[in-house]
Amino acid sequence: MKTRGLFLVVLLLFLAKGYAQENKSRFSFELNSGVSFATSELGDVELKPGFGFEGIFHYRLQQHWGLYAGWGWNKLTSKEKISGENLDFEETGYVFGLQYKHPISELPLNYYLRAGGLYNHIETESTDGTIVDDTGHGFGWQFAGGVEIGLGSKWSLMPGFKFNSLSRSTDYFGTSTDLDLNYLSLRVGILKKF
């Protein structure tokens, strides 16, 4: 009980210090999109470059530290035909984590780093859109970084990258298979501060 109480006091002091430091916007929303490149095979399947997007809410705790959470979708397609057709692998679900943002000199630029988790699933779809398999949701991780370019007091351009890693087990075409989806994305986003 004492540990939980001490943790709560430290958390409240951390948040109060952040409120006292600046009167800048605490909330923001980001939409980003871009190309994705698999860094390994998915099971035994080699993947073509794909495409995805995310919508992320940000909350600034202190001057440089904040939290983020949102939803994302990413699609990669098999290079070879499987059972007579190319299959699409769609990763969808939730992202959440901690963000560090710091100014670059006196310019209207910040660099940012993010580390967090995923709660996603992988759907396998045929070319006509029929769902062949769904792994169900599970936890993975994400690392991201980039530059925030100020476009005015409330808008920013957000070029960057992200790396997602998600491991799921599934019965794939009647065979138990481990799917490790690892990919690097080059993203460009727009951020609105509130």
Q: Which fold name fills CATH's third level, the topology?
A: Porin
Structural class: mainly beta
Order of the strands making up the biggest sheet: 1-2-3-4-5-7-8-9
Give start-end ranges of low-pLDDT stretches: 15-23
In the CATH hierarchy, the architecture is Beta Barrel
Shape: elongated
Q: What is the level 1 CATH name?
A: Mainly Beta
Q: How would a crystallographer describe the biggest sheet?
A: 8 strands, antiparallel, barrel
Distance between the ends: 37 Å
In round numbers, the mean pLDDT is 88
- Beta fraction: over 45%
Q: Please give the number of β-strands.
A: 9
Number of helices: 1
**What oligomerization state is this entry in?**
single chain
Radius of gyration: 20 Å
Written as H for each helix and E for each strand, in order along the chain, the element string is: HEEEEEEEEE
Helix content, binned percent: 10-25%
Q: Count structural domains.
A: 1
Protein name: Opacity protein
Domain Outer membrane protein beta-barrel: 8-189
Keywords: Signal
Pfam family, one: OMP_b-brl
How would you explain this protein's 3D organization?
This is Opacity protein. The structure is a single chain. With 194 residues, the chain is mainly β. 10% of the residues lie in helices and 63% in strands. It has one helix spanning 2-21; strands spanning 27-38, 50-60, 65-77, 88-103, 109-125, 131-134, 138-150, 155-172, 175-193. The chain has an 8-stranded antiparallel barrel. β8 and β9 (175-193) form a beta hairpin.
